[in-house]
Design goal:
Strand content of chain A: over 45%
Order of helices and strands of chain A: EEEEEEEEEEE
Largest sheet of chain A: 7 strands, mixed
Helix content of chain A: under 10%
Shape of chain A: globular
Structural class of chain A: mainly beta
Strand content of chain B: over 45%
Structural class of chain B: mainly beta
Number of helices of chain B: 0
Radius of gyration of chain B: 13 Å
Distance between the termini of chain B: 38 Å
Helix content of chain B: under 10%
Order of helices and strands of chain B: EEEEEEEEEEE
Number of helices of chain A: 0
Shape of chain B: globular
Distance between the termini of chain A: 37 Å
Radius of gyration of chain A: 13 Å
Largest interface: A-B, 25 and 27 residues
Oligomer: heterodimer
Number of strands of chain A: 11
Chain lengths: 112, 112
């Protein structure tokens, strides 16, 4: 069974540019989360999808971040325009229930 | 405001000895706790979990202890092996939550 897959694994962009991260969850997992870890701090919640619906986006830092999950399968997280403080590792997590969490390998975003 | 805290950023242990990683939480509504292990350039992988109805859960060399009154849990690794060297994250969730709250991680180094 394929795990959670994230693309790209690493992205370096200039401040003001746009970046789109993609996540393919484990097949059959209705729950999909985005988390972020900044500079060795805690892994912080960004938002939660159940199928294609956003259940909770209370962790999204601001309106420069937009997440979508069209058709309830893969998800994208767009940052536009990127700022320096957006640098970090973005993890996608999927699960069948609220007590299950399988991580992708993460996308390391560096904004310069 | 961080609801799950790992106050030791790093721990160094000799091979064969016990590793004890600690985690504290603030929200008494958490009823499910997990430990994840993370190697560099990989996503965290699930290690062991415990429900609040238990105070101990054991899986091979790994044991998690939960002290609800103190809002504290710990992960014991016995005996420690060099391959256990990684960053360990504590996480909390539960039926009243639709997301996981993570600590900032403890980097374990097991010396041969």
């Amino acid at each position: 069974e394929a795990g959670v897959t994230q693309f790209p694994s690493h992205s370096v962009i200039e401040k003001g540019q746009t970046v789109t991260l993609r996540c393919d969850p484990i097949s059959g997992h209705d729950n999909l989360y985005w988390y972020r870890r900044v500079m060795g701090k805690e892994i912080k919640f960004l938002l939660h999808f159940v199928k294609e619906s956003k259940q909770d986006e209370s962790g999204m830092p601001n309106n420069r971040f937009l997440a979508e999950r069209t058709g309830g399968t893969y998800s994208t997280l767009k940052v536009q325009p990127a700022e320096l403080e957006d640098s970090g590792v973005y993890f996608c997590v999927s699960g069948r229930s609220s007590t299950e969490a399988f991580f992708g390998q993460g996308t390391r975003l560096t904004v310069v | 405001d961080q609801q799950v805290k790992q106050n030791s950023p790093s721990l160094s242990v000799q091979e064969g000895r016990i590793s004890i990683l600690n985690c504290d939480y603030t929200n008494s509504m958490f009823d499910y706790f997990l430990w994840y292990k993370k190697y560099p350039a990989e996503g965290p992988t699930f290690l062991i979990s415990i429900s609040s109805i238990k105070d101990k859960n054991e899986d091979g060399r790994f044991t998690v202890f939960l002290n609800k009154s103190a809002k504290h849990l710990s992960l014991h690794i016995v005996p420690s092996q060099p391959g256990d060297s990684a960053v360990y994250f504590c996480a909390a969730s539960g039926h009243n939550f639709n997301k996981f709250y993570f600590g900032s991680g403890t980097k374990l180094n097991v010396k041969p």
